[in-house]
Amino acid sequence: MDPAERAQAARARVPRIDPYGFERPEDFDYAAYEEFFSTYLVILTKRAIKWSKLLKGNGGVRKSVTDLNRTFPDNVMFRKTADPCLQKTLYNVLLAYGLHNPDVGYCQGMNFIAGYLILITKNEEESFWLLDALVGRILPDYYSPAMLGLKTDQEVLAELVRMKLPAVAALMDGHGVLWTLLVSRWFICLFVDILPVETVLRIWDCLFNEGSKIIFRVALTLIKQHQEFILEASSIPDICDKFKQITKGDFVTECHAFMQKIFSEPGSLSMTTITRLRKSCRAALQAQS
Question: Where are the alpha helices (DSSP H) in 101-147?
Fold first, then answer.
């Protein structure tokens, strides 16, 4: 079939009005659209089959999912009295992911990530594939048993603070404070239950679109914006308390202004720099272990 015939045949099969009620323009490429959508349907079908098989599977992962009751206790939709109760949905997503990626299985903190995805999508399968994108592609090794990726990025943040906020770095070094003590939950939970819901969702939009660099931008912005406040600390408990306080208040609640800040406050932050720091920090951690 030549291109003209293929275009005519596609035009006959594809509705002139799209699913949202808009009429397609006269120059709409029906053949290209049909080719794209056919490929996309194959992907969706394969994913649906994979998801169905995972739901039927079982294994030792069940024993690892122990945090369901501790997931969003202040959210009425996750309470056992809710109808439907999202704990069952959360259980299915975490169990399926553990079977899908046995090298990771279930790691503490994944319940909050999966729980947020369920609240957003209201769909088990979509939540599962988004979780897979985060854990398997965007944040590799964050949730592996050794959590090497997570530990590496905490050290990368420490190096970035030394480069951009040396006074804060000097305070930490002077008191011998480990960065994991201050920011581990920021990285593990991707700011869930740390920053306001609307702000977290805006951060996640950028995380899916731009990758893990956004986590450093958020962390650096929080620290830089409150640098003078942090520098008032005179002890380790005081430092820890101040790092809890900087995640609260109007600055993080006004999500639109906050998101503008994260792209201006930290200044230049290239992936080349982050990749270089990750390589050196990972090597140092591996040498220590």
Answer: 110-121, 124-132
Exposure string over 126-144, b if 16+ CB within 10 A, otherwise e:
bbbbbbbebbbebbebbbb
Asked whether the beta carbons of 61 and 106 are under 8 A apart, the reply is yes
pTM equals: 0.84
Indicate the residue type of 49.
I
Neighbours of 24 (CB within 10 A): 15
CATH class in words for 60-138: mainly alpha
Instruction: Assign domain 148-288 to a CATH class.
Output: mainly alpha
Rounded to 10 deg, the angle between the 86-100 and 30-56 helix axes is: 100
One-letter amino acid at 156 equals V
pLDDT for 232: 97
Least confident of 63-67, 235-239, 268-272: 63-67
Q: Locate tokens 């206790």: which residue?
A: 73
- At 156, list the tokens: 């990368």
Q: CB–CB of 182/243 below 8 Å?
A: yes
- Residue 99's Cβ-side half-sphere holds a number of Cα atoms within 13 Å equal to 18
Extended strands (E) in the chain: none
The dihedrals phi and psi of 212, each to the nearest 5 degrees, come to: -70, -15
